[in-house]
Amino acid sequence: MSQASVIRGVEERPLFAEVRGDFRVSFEFFPPKTEKMEAQLWDAVIDLAPLAPSFVSVTYGAGGSTRERTHATVARIVQETDLTPAAHLTCVAASKDDIAEVADRYWEAGVRHVVALRGDPPPESGGRFEPHPHGYAGAAELVAGLRARHPFEISVAAYPEVHADAISAAADLDNLKRKIDAGASRAITQFFYSTDAYFRFLDRVLAAGITAPILPGIMPVTNFSAIRRMSGNTEIPGWMIELFEGLDDKPGTRSLVSAVVATNLCRRLHQGGVRDFHFYTLNRAEQTHAVCHLLGLRPKELGQ
Q1: What whole-number distance in Å separates Cα of residue 275 and Cα of residue 269?
Q2: Residue 73: is it exposed, middle or buried by C-beta count within 10 angstroms (0-12/13-18/19+)?
Q3: Catalytic positions, please?
Q4: What residues make up the domain containing 246?
Q5: Residue 10 lies in a domain
Q6: Mean pLDDT lowest among 81-90, 107-116, 191-200, 229-238
Q7: Please, what is the end-to-end C-alpha distance for the chain in angstroms?
Q8: pLDDT, tens digit, 9 for 90 and up, residues 22-55
Q9: How many domains does the chain have?
Q10: Nearest residue to 162 (alpha-carbon basis) of 116, 205, 98
Q11: 3-state secondary structure of 122
Q12: 238 vs 41, 93, 189, 233, CA distance in Å?
């Protein structure tokens, strides 16, 4: 039997065709430090906006170091786009009054969604989080304080492979439950590359009585060495290390490989019932847009 007759009649389907764009997305950006970086950020915002994200979040630097730049970025998104911005807000190096002032400014600017985080301690702290003497002890208290101030929609963080500072997986899960019970609407996970880790985490979340959505955080690889430095407790699979080996100085090839790896991760999550994906864009649109395209999501003006 010829090879042609073996494959004759088999439907030719593109990779990931079973997904067909039936999911929602959200994107994370960080505030720019320079005019060049601001132009790059805004290019990414404009490129990804037609994918109609549920919201776009803007990060807040360690110790509140990007406070004004975060506010300026969020305010510009409100003023110049139809996107729904979510401003990050942390507890680090801030009193309750400081946080109330920031929250009021966001509310006055038209921001109705906040990502409430404990926050990363500044480098001079030696990596150890110390609550401000007149501040919030952690994210659960911050959520409660924000909800008391304004009726914000609030997202919080979750860690499928356990926060690096947690004393145990059970304590980490209990902290997540406190944040949800305090008024958070959803959690967004730290990036991961093991779907098994995410689904095992969901099982534990449900067993703990948490029913809020847990959005998976997707981090396409722009720099593999940086990913390994940022990974913390996140497992980097051996096959992934081998796949990116030798690509540090080949950004074009690395970008193509990264898009396929992230798309396959999303495909497996989709097969498990996930219909919301949160992308850590690092202010670059290309890979995130490529992943969404491969999964069947199209700009709204082309899909109507």
Answers
A1: 8
A2: buried
A3: 28
A4: 20-298
A5: no
A6: 229-238
A7: 45
A8: 999 999 999 998 999 999 999 999 999 999 999 9
A9: 1
A10: 205
A11: coil
A12: 32, 38, 22, 15
